Amino acid sequence: MTTRGNGRTTGHRVAVIGAGYVGLPTAATLARFGHSVVLAERDLAKLETLRRGLSPIVEQDLDELIAGGVASGNLSFTESAVEAVKGARFVFLCVPTPQSSDGSADLSFVEAAAKEVAAHLATGAIVVNKSTVPVGSATFVEQVIGRSDVSVVSNPEFLREGSAVLDSLNPDRIVVGSDDTQAAAKVGELFATTAAPLIVTDATTSETIKYASNAFLATKLSFVNALAGLCEEVGADARDVLLGLGYDKRIGFEFLRPGPGWGGSCLPKDTSALLHIAKEAGYDFSLLAGAIASNDEQLARVIGKVEQMCGGSVTGVTLGVWGLTFKANTDDRRESPSLQITGRLTELGATVQAFDPTVDAEAEPREDLRGLQLRADPYEAAAGARALVVLTEWDEFRWLDFSRVLALMAEPCIVDARNLLDPSAVRRMGFRYTGLGRQ
Ligand code: UGA
């Protein structure tokens, strides 16, 4: 890093390949940290939005961070990965690593990106694997690049969608791993303006930390969801049980909210990938297999609650659904438990009227929404419904006019798969209500 006479850092030249949910906040954050970042994105519509200083994804404060980066001159965009890496000291690969049919991570995008830029990298450049990649991927990328002057460093990302900017600017930790320790340390220095502890390790360990973190979080949630189910059976109040757990500093309050099952583009993919890695290594990770199976049971448990609320079956029944994204504050519906549940309810013969604040009911529905009756507001989704199912925890649902909802519905029944609403308040209004783990 170079320092100007006035003590301000001018930063390094950084290229980021891929403007997705990881690449975009990474690029904007590195620009904020004072580095000169060129972000490469092939999707021309996305690129156009970015050039206007706007975020193509729903993410709190990301618009401002992008606009700030553009205004400072630290953040620019290009369609060409080759163009982006020219003269860059650091090249972050932030391309997707989708799940293959056998549960392993598909590295074809990483391979293609590495191949594309290999010959154009500056002498001594450091390539950073930011995408979640299988153990051994740093070596794989090194081989694809095939240049002895270029080092590859694993630097997993831990940001959450919905709070990506906050998480990127204030990370809990920075992990860097490489067989070239100096290169790893240099990548760590890019984040020196944060107070986050730095873990410098080898590539295999760094790659394992990423999978282990997501698998642990998924296991924690499976435990919480199963515990909520048990609370219902024994008559305990899961909210208070979890409060009692959370005050133990070793457990903590984060990630203790029961829900319809964990989803999104990361937890399901990464737990399956870690299970695959374990299987390949001949290791029986039955605990993780149990956490995954328990997540499927949670979806079934929520569907069972809806059926019960409708007198045993949803066949021929109209249901109102609030929330389609995999969690609130994002427009991401990949591996959304809401869509898995609405899909199964539709298969069972229900008509599902759905509302989500990020879904335009008028637009041609994307493939994943086919079969749903999309509605323009939450009241329209509830109109004529036999039961209302809350599947995503959008805060705005809590503040609706529930007397209006009650008047619109065919039956006053609510299944709250996020424990979002106040049970006594809605019951006082005349609703039948069921949540998770509470009476
Ligand atoms: C997850 C991890 O939390 C991040 O640390 C990681 O960087 C990211 O994956 C990734 O690998 O890229 P994310 O997928 O954005 O982040 O979502 P989470 O906030 O972890 O939520 C995952 C699922 O768990 C969602 O379906 C959410 O609704 C559910 N959840 C979360 C609950 O049901 N209850 C909770 O208390 C928390």
Question: Could you characterize what this model shows?
Answer:
- This protein has 439 residues and is an alpha/beta fold.
- 40% of the residues lie in helices and 13% in strands.
- The chain has 16 helices and 14 strands.
- The strands form three sheets. The chain has a six-stranded parallel β-sheet, with helices on both faces.
- Strand 4, helix 5 (108-118) and strand 5 (126-129) form a beta-alpha-beta unit.
- Helix 1 (23-32) crosses helix 3, helix 9 packs parallel to helix 12 (286-309) and helix 12 crosses helix 13 (337-347).
- It is globular and about 70 Å long.
- It binds uridine-5'-diphosphate-glucuronic acid (UGA).
- The site of uridine-5'-diphosphate-glucuronic acid (UGA) has 21 residues, from helix 9.
State the shape. Answer: globular
Q: Total number of helical segments?
A: 16
Determine the N-to-C terminus distance.
Answer: 58 Å
Instruction: Look at the helices and sheets and give the structural class.
Output: alpha/beta
Strand line-up across the major sheet: 3-2-1-4-5-6
Instruction: Return the string of H and E elements.
Output: EHEHHEHEHEHEHEHEHHHHEHEEHEHEHE
Strand content: 5-15%
CATH architecture of the largest domain: 3-Layer(aba) Sandwich
Biggest β-sheet description: 6 strands, parallel
Question: How many distinct beta strands?
Answer: 14
Radius of gyration: 23 Å
